[in-house]
């Protein structure tokens, strides 16, 4: 398995393109192989897989993170549809604290985004009936669950909403701004 790993503007966030083996039937692709990823410098132990289904385009899920000691690395990919996937640096000592990077993930292209612990994560669906799968390196811990509001002007994410109001959970509508929390990492 060959991996194409590209660091985004914030170097710790990686866009990964696993190799696809295609023929007239379709394709085969290894989306996770611990040995191959470790050889590419990504040595993680994932403990849980999550699946998200969003019916409508313009659904925003996030921006979520888990505080230590249950902080999570995430490996995210679109199984169906397309998303704008976003990672916000929450590491208080980082020169990029409060900045974000984003990448479009598509089922067709098979791209994956590695979002390391220390980042808030979220995405916006770009097509109807979008499914997103992600592996995490720590179990869900409700007492460590946290987030920041999707439209925090200090972060300035340009969500692809074409002027429309996003579909949000009640929980995500009430998250605080970055300036209202202490740096958790």
Could you characterize what this model shows?
By secondary structure, this protein is mostly beta strands. A 6-stranded antiparallel beta sheet has the order 1-2-10-7-12-5, with no helix packed on it. A 5-stranded antiparallel beta sheet has the order 9-8-11-6-13, with no helix packed on it. A hairpin with a 2-residue loop joins strand 3 and strand 4. The protein is globular and about 50 Å long.
Write the layout of secondary structure elements.
Elements (H helix, E strand, L loop, with lengths): L2 E5 L6 E5 L1 E4 L2 E4 L4 H6 L8 E7 L5 E7 L7 E7 L1 E8 L10 E7 L5 E4 L3 E7 L4 E7 L8 E3 L22 H4 L12
Antiparallel strand pairs: 1-2, 2-10, 3-4, 5-12, 6-11, 6-13, 7-10, 7-12, 8-9, 8-11
Short description:
By secondary structure, this protein is mostly beta strands. The protein has 2 helices and 13 strands; from the N terminus they run ββββαβββββββββα.
Oligomeric description of these chains: single chain
Form type: globular
Distance between the termini: 34 Å
Number of strands: 13
Count of DSSP-assigned helices? 2
- Spatial ordering of strands, largest sheet: 1-2-10-7-12-5
Largest sheet: 6 strands, antiparallel
